[in-house]
Design a protein that fits this description.
mainly alpha
């Protein structure tokens, strides 16, 4: 086989591999979205960045392997790689990895809640009792203020009002 045909074959296979790589990168985004819920704005930003990186990767591949000449079979190779990967293993990888990560995160959060639940209950108990102590201290402070304002307690148990000068 001639060297030109070998180079064209390698270029085509590189195009197919680039298509597979691009869909795999998007699958990582899909997994991330299944594990951590995203809003529409963040999803749009992620997609925009993905397509910018995709364009750059395709440009670099074509520039490096074919001196920047866009050829129809390069685009066909990228599309073939995208279709082959997406239709064969993409769904299984996304579903399997996201299910595994959700399972792991569920058990880790359960473990942490089991560990930190007693600490949380102690914190609530201390906060509740500390607030009661503070409130009772505020009442004592109000009584002291009243004594200063009204003067000494008379024999009957009521406050005698101070005379104003």
């Amino acid at each position: 086989m001639s060297e030109v045909i070998q180079n064209e074959t390698w270029f085509f296979l590189t195009s197919v591999a680039t298509g597979v790589l691009l869909v795999f990168a998007y699958d990582l985004l899909r997994i991330l979205r299944r594990v951590f819920k995203h809003g529409t704005i963040l999803t749009g930003v992620e997609d925009f960045l993905y397509w910018c990186v995709t364009a750059f990767v395709i440009f670099c591949m074509i520039y490096e392997k074919n001196n920047g000449a866009i050829r129809g079979f390069a685009i066909a190779g990228i599309l073939l790689g995208v279709i082959l990967y997406h239709e064969s293993v993409s769904g299984y990888i996304v579903k399997g990895v996201s299910t595994a990560l959700n399972f792991i995160f569920h058990w880790v959060s359960t473990l942490f809640s089991f560990i930190f639940r007693p600490i949380s209950k102690l914190k609530k108990f201390l906060r509740k009792n500390f607030v009661k102590t503070l409130k009772s201290g505020k009442k004592a402070g109000k009584i002291r203020l009243r004594r200063k304002k009204w003067g000494k307690i008379s024999k009957e148990g009521s406050y005698a009002q101070k005379k104003k000068r």
